[in-house]
Amino acid sequence: MYTQALNATDQAAKPVEDAALAARFQERIDAEDRIEPNDWMPEAYRKTLTRQISQHAHSEIVGMLPEGNWITRAPTLRRKAALLAKVQDECGHGLYLYAAAETLGTAREELVDQLLTGRAKYSSIFNYPTLSWADIGAIGWLVDGAAIMNQIPLCRCSYGPYARAMIRVCKEESFHQRQGYEIMVTLARGTPEQKAMAQDALDRWWWPCLMMFGPPDSASQHSDTSTRWKIKRFSNDELRQKFVDATVPQAQFIGLFPPDPALKLNAETGHWAYGAIDWDEFKRVLAGNGPCNRDRMAARRKAHDDGAWVREAALAYAEKRRARAAARREETP
Fold first, then answer.
1. Exposure of 28 by Cβ count < 10 A (0-12 exposed, 13-18 middle, 19+ buried)?
2. What is the tens place of the pLDDT at every residue in 49-77?
3. Distance between CA 152 and CA 292 in Å, rounded?
4. What is the DSSP secondary-structure string of 208-223?
5. Other C-beta atoms within 10 Å of 52: how many?
6. Would you call 123 helix, strand, or coil by DSSP?
7. Helix locations, the chain, DSSP H
């Protein structure tokens, strides 16, 4: 769901590559050809995509935690069923994306190990707590809304497996965004206490959602290369502005107001100007010092350890099936 990995620096030495192959590769990119797993690609392209797709997968899996926290506390059976379906969708997104990342040559087990050992990141947004039911609405409306802004251009990513996976992911994320906004509409039109709950959730999630798009373009380390390779179609600031322009009117429609006194519509450009983002907070959360970083990783490590017997049983069953198939082949005259 999330592309903050594009803002990380790759410290590995760049291998010497054939200039003619590199030129041909860029020609294909410029012609809007899709790059497939068996095609030649620069090592830096492979590493960039592996980092981005795996972080996206990690984010989908970790992103189940703040919402799963409310499944047993949903206010109605309808809400519970919808939230269960949404969390299940996020798990499926993670599986699609791990599969896409594996086509670049890194095993899923290695990708998961990178997350569990802290060598890989996931989106900073999931290190914030869900304190009320309104937070579930805010996550759907704002977090998934921001994700859609990021992900729709990825449907035209130059790497085929990633682009194809994103088509289904975007369709389901669109449902999630509508579900979240409907929760916020219901609360905003409810009792004064319910509306206050919705406003409180918006107050707490607004700025972290703007941080989701990554640092400003002036501080983004991989944007130029990723844009040239057509992994990334829009800059961080362009996507952030699109999100603000789309979301502010939605908030106003239901009588809620983003917590930004500097927010103002520019009549000439049609864009909403917004205040300064606290990038120090963004850096703290990315560094592992957010409100829920440790809890999120502890939960993922526990789930991985508790699921070891399932993985072992699946491997044993697969081996048994292979052995039976081999035995039948030997018995066949």
1. middle
2. 999 999 999 999 999 999 999 999 999 99
3. 28
4. HHHHTT-S-GGG-SSH
5. 26
6. coil
7. 19-30, 43-62, 64-68, 77-102, 108-116, 133-138, 144-151, 160-188, 192-211, 223-228, 236-253, 279-284, 293-306, 308-331
